[in-house]
Design a protein that fits this description.
Strands 3-4-2-5-1-6-7-8 form an 8-stranded mixed beta sheet, with helices on both faces. With about 300 residues, the protein is α/β, with parallel strands linked by helices. It has 13 helices and 8 strands. Strand 6, helix 8 and strand 7 (about 200-210) form a beta-alpha-beta unit. The protein has a single domain, classed as 3-Layer(aba) Sandwich (Rossmann fold). The chain is globular and about 55 Å long. The chain has helices at about 5-20, 50-65, 80-85, 100-105, 120-125, 130-145, 160-170, 180-195, 210-230, 245-250, 255-260, 265-280, 295-300, and strands spanning about 35-45, 70, 105-110, 115, 150-155, 170-175, 200-210, 235-240. About 50% of the residues lie in helices and about 15% in strands. The termini are far apart. Bound molecules: adenosine-5'-triphosphate and magnesium ion (MG).
């Protein structure tokens, strides 16, 4: 880790903390928080590119010195493992295992990116005794010192589980393609999020557009509908153009940022990653979440 990377990390943490504590004038906090920034990646419609985006965003953030974790929270298929060509040995439930440290259950992704499979264990928390819950919360807190950013790759659609991840996260990135059905489902998702008491900040990534204009027009449509009917502002985080090298990289099980670093998709994701690090300064204030992710997650389910 270079000095520069260390400084950037502190800066980002301070920005997030400044926002969370409502400190004016953006002065640096002398006590940087140890909580990572939780980003939930979701979509209305399936197959729009969430998992590829999550992993490549994770790599881009890691390259900028952010200690980044991707949690695979899609309970169906092992999405992240498929894209990376890896087999994660442990799941979230292994946090209960006294013989394993938190570091032990983290899977090694490329370039220092860490991976953890949520497995269905993330949902088992609902049936746990209070004692076990406290243990999970305590163990999960150990992650706080290890990461700056945690990306949660969810499944698609309006399920209670996915909304719980959204509500527990600090921000949500909603991925959509320009397809009308994808946009309609994205709007339905925004509507659902806007009705939750948490009103989590929603940023949109338009993936697989043919041109920048097409992507911008689609974002505008979503923004207009969201403001007009829901009075809920959404933020544009950028676009990823349709790029055949994404499909090729999936076939090769090597993320496109690594296999095709100069591809359009890679450059688009790099730009988005820089926005992720900067947007806490630029955007309008949004709901502030104080307690820890797992506590929020459990409370929402209870
Ligand atoms: N920018 C892009 N250009 C071209 N093809 C893309 C792009 N993004 C995604 N794809 C294609 O879409 C496929 C599905 O992507 P991915 O698995 O990331 O979607 P997902 O939203 O995670 O799906 P699911 O909802 O099933 O979890 C990829 O295998 C790839 O072929
Ligand atoms: Mg996926």
């Amino acid at each position: 880790m270079t000095d520069q990377a260390g400084k950037l990390r502190t800066l980002v943490k301070n920005r997030i903390s400044t926002e969370k504590t409502g400190t004016e004038n953006g002065a640096l906090d002398t006590n940087p928080p140890t909580k990572p920034h939780f980003i939930c990646i979701t979509s209305g419609k399936g197959g729009v590119g969430k998992t590829n985006f999550s992993i490549n965003l994770g790599i881009a953030l890691t390259r900028q010195g952010m200690r980044t974790l991707v949690i695979d929270a899609d309970f169906g298929l092992a999405n992240v493992d498929v894209v990376l060509g890896t087999i994660t040995k442990y799941t979230f439930m292994n946090l209960m295992d006294e013989n394993l440290s938190v570091e032990n259950i983290l899977g090694e992704g490329p370039e220092g990116l860490k991976i953890i499979s949520g497995g269905s264990g993330l949902l088992n928390v609902l049936d746990m005794s209070e004692e076990k819950l406290q243990r999970i919360i305590q163990r999960f807190n150990e992650l706080n010192t290890l990461f700056d950013i945690v990306i949660i790759d969810t499944g698609a659609g309006l399920t209670k589980n996915i909304l719980s991840f959204v509500n527990a996260s600090d921000e949500t990135i909603l991925v959509t393609t320009p397809e009308p059905t994808s946009l309609t489902d994205a709007y339905a998702m925004i509507k659902a999020i806007s009705r939750e008491p948490e009103r989590t900040k929603v940023s949109v990534v338009v993936n697989r557009a043919e041109t920048h204009e097409e992507a911008d027009q689609n974002f505008e449509k979503l923004l207009n509908a969201s403001m007009k009917f829901l009075n809920f502002p959404i933020h544009s985080l950028g676009i990823i153009l349709d790029d055949y090298r994404v499909k090729k990289s999936v076939q090769l099980q090597v993320p496109f940022l690594i296999k095709y670093p100069n591809s359009i998709a890679s450059r688009n994701v790099e730009l988005i990653s820089r926005k992720v690090l900067n947007h806490n300064i630029d955007d309008a204030p949004h709901e502030v979440k104080e307690s820890n992710f797992v506590k929020r997650f459990i409370n929402i389910f209870k």
